[in-house]
Amino acid sequence: MSAILPADWPAPGNVHAFTTLRHGAGRSQAPFDSFNLGTRYGQYRDDPAVVEANRAELVERFGLPSSPRWLHQVHGTGVVRFARDTAQDEPDGDAAVTAEPGVVLAILTADCLPVVFASDDGRVIGAAHAGWRGLAGGVLERTVEAMQVDPGRVLAWLGPAAGPQAYEIGAEVRDAFVGGDARAASAFVATRPDHWRVDLYALARLRLADAGIREVAGGGLCTITDARRFYSHRRDAQTGRMATLAWMDPL
């Protein structure tokens, strides 16, 4: 069984990106079984020593050029710029960018939308954690800005997230998007009073287009309904986290 989902996008050859899957590697026990890479989630947490072992296996098994630069994700819009000499702690932030080969960016998710970015010349990459709050707040746009590249030269890949046929939300979420952009209403389908199914992929594509990005790949997967491959907080409450990673080789 494969332990990763490679990004399917027309990125330059020196750019690598994938999302880990819940099985195929690791040794976490239920309900975190088995390739859990998250440390902070829920009342019942995975054994920290096991998570560290899973993270070490991640580096070794997939030949990463360095240990991933993990973030303390806060469902905000902060973007961290990493260099080789950036401290190895976990700064608060929900997105990261780098212009240095060998620096591995990492985003943890279990329903939220991971988005990877790359310039078309393979010199700058970014990765963003787009939960509904961050997506509505502009985390994708801020990541593109932090790359300091003409948006028309930026490619994006949408990793696995809660899908539009299963992700039901309330009025707070819909208002956060539609209140700022009436076009966002097309991403919501009413299900019952004050509840809608939401298409995170459609909302992300709308915002990326407005930011000037013309090439967007990925989307169409659902973490909620695909329990064999993906962790889902909405489905299971107590669960692990997948990692979406991106890095560049030297040109």
Question: Would you kindly provide a written description of the structure presented here, covering whatever features stand out?
Answer:
This protein has 251 residues and is α+β, with helices and mostly antiparallel strands. The protein contains six helices and 13 strands. The strands form three sheets. The protein has a six-stranded mixed sheet with strand order 3-4-7-6-8-12. It has a four-stranded antiparallel sheet with strand order 1-2-13-5, with no helix packed on it. β10 (188-192) and β11 form a beta hairpin. It starts with a strand and ends with a strand.
- What kind of assembly state do the chains in view correspond to? single chain
Compute the number of strand runs.
13
β-sheet strand percentage: 15-25%
Which class do the helix and strand fractions yield?
Answer: alpha+beta
List the helices and strands and how they pair.
Elements: E1 4-6, E2 15-20, H1 48-61, E3 79-81, E4 95-98, E5 105-109, E6 113-119, E7 125-130, H2 132-137, H3 139-147, E8 154-158, E9 168-170, H4 171-178, E10 188-192, E11 195-198, H5 200-210, E12 215-218, H6 233-236, E13 242-248
Parallel strand pairs: 3-4, 8-12
Antiparallel strand pairs: 1-2, 2-13, 4-7, 5-13, 6-7, 6-8, 9-11, 10-11
